[in-house]
Amino acid sequence: MTAATGLTAAATTRKRSTAIRPLKQEDYEALAQVRYEVRRFLTFSEEKARGAGIEPQQHQLLLALKALSNAGRPTIGALAKRLLIRHHSAVELVTRSVKSGLVRRSPRSGDDRRTVTLRMTKRGERLLAALSVVHRNELRSAAPALLQAIEAIIASNAVDRRLGARPRRVRARTESSWGR
Predict the structure, then answer these.
(1) CATH at 93
(2) What's this model's pTM, rounded to 2 decimal places?
(3) In a domain, 170, yes or no
(4) How far apart are CA 46 and CA 96, in angstroms?
(5) Is-contact 15 7, C-beta < 8 A?
(6) Range of 49's domain?
(7) In a structure prediction context, what are the per-residue pLDDT tens digits for the chain, which is 180 residues long?
């Protein structure tokens, strides 16, 4: 047992064989490039939303609402979960969007009268359709740079495996696996 770590020689050896190599300059560059490309797209998205006369958060609300509408009755709770915001923040966002004529609350019905279903207005639908075409085109043009940065990170992970590190299980992020 070593005094510094409190581990036996066998445990130290085992720990070394599963350790991931220290990051190199290229790793930091790839991580920074991914963040840059994501931020560049988000900045583009925010500017386009403002240019269309709505808040960027309202654009996100419209997009989430459209995506949720096929999964059932979109509620404020489901919207909050999808946007990764607190319930009271979603209520405020919906209220602003109702005042802007983008969304409407449908009448409360059913067993739980506290539940409010949300629907997009014609104006909201038109704005979302126009913004979505522009966003899809931007993503298509930005994809090569973003994919190149992600591939550099994946290649770095392959090096870790060749060095004997056990790959960590990576599962796809689903709505329920994203934390707040």
Answers:
(1) 1.10.10.10
(2) 0.74
(3) no
(4) 17
(5) yes
(6) 24-159
(7) 555 555 555 554 444 445 577 889 999 999 999 999 999 999 999 999 999 999 999 999 999 999 998 777 799 999 999 999 999 999 999 999 999 999 999 866 666 667 788 999 999 999 999 999 999 999 999 999 999 999 998 888 766 665 555 545 545 555 444 443
